[in-house]
TrEMBL record:
InterPro entries: Cytidylate_kin, Cytidylate_kinase_dom, P-loop_NTPase. It catalyses: dCMP + ATP = dCDP + ADP; CMP + ATP = CDP + ADP. SUPFAM superfamilies: P-loop containing nucleoside triphosphate hydrolases. It is found in: Cytoplasm. The gene is cmk. Its EC number is 2.7.4.25. It comes from Paenibacillus foliorum. Belongs to the cytidylate kinase family. Type 1 subfamily. Pfam families: Cytidylate_kin (PF02224). This is Cytidylate kinase.
Length: 226
């Protein structure tokens, strides 16, 4: 089977990372979580005590840091300057600030270059918010995953119950809606559905069904898949 690239985009809580990883595992492709890269930049800025209101500091730090993605037993591992930050980048503080960091044009340009390089040899499943529209505009298959804000909040609530006992479902729903607005309204590479992307509303779909639908698209639209 010839290798090809798959771009999976969508808002927070749509299931992109889980579904992209499962699709990649089934096809024997490489999974790239671009959202983790932006989280890594955010975590690094917060750990370094940088002001998020001073983009120049964030840009300089991004240019100097090393981000490495590696497959792990429970998904993709993320390393910043050799340190495993896989768990750290999922904190509430990082989550609530990552959209602000992702809106910085030079940060996006820096990470986009890295992301494009990862997909040069094909055989990549990459998820994020601007993959099909900006990072991999020539991807052989593009999918835009979405779901209602309520359902996305419920999914995220189940994921973080052990770590954020102080947050309510309603607060989480408001946070996700606010992040949607920030991602959709940023000037550089906003969250949009690429014109040639297939829209999948996962509101009432279990994960295995979504994965199978994407594998079916690989077979029908690209001629690949299992």
């Amino acid at each position: 089977m010839d290798k090809f690239n798959i771009a999976i985009d969508g808002p927070a809580g749509a299931g992109k990372s889980t579904i992209a990883r499962l699709v990649a595992n089934t096809l024997g492709f490489v999974y790239v979580d671009t959202g983790a890269m932006y989280r890594a930049v955010t975590w690094n800025a917060l750990q370094s005590g940088l002001s998020l209101d001073h983009p120049a500091e964030i840009i300089a730090a991004t240019e100097q840091m090393e981000i490495r993605l590696a497959p792990g037993e429970n998904g993709q591992q993320v390393f910043v300057n050799g340190r495993d930050v896989t768990v750290d980048i999922r904190s509430a503080e990082v989550t609530n600030n990552v959209s602000q960091i992702a809106a910085i044009a030079e940060v996006r340009r820096n990470l986009t270059v890295k992301q494009k390089q990862l997909a040069v040899d094909k055989g990549v499943v990459m998820d994020g918010r601007d993959i099909g529209s900006h990072v991999l505009p020539n991807a052989e298959l593009k999918v835009f995953l979405t779901a209602s804000v309520r359902v996305r909040a419920e999914r995220r609530y189940k994921e973080i119950q052990d770590d954020r006992t102080d947050v309510t479902l309603e607060q989480l729903e408001a946070e996700i809606a606010a992040r949607d607005r920030m991602d959709e309204s940023r000037e550089i590479a906003p969250l949009i559905q690429a014109p040639d992307a297939v829209l999948l509303d996962t509101t009432g779909m279990p994960i295995p069904q979504v994965v199978e639908r994407i594998l079916e698209l690989c077979r029908t639209e690209v001629g690949g898949g299992k």
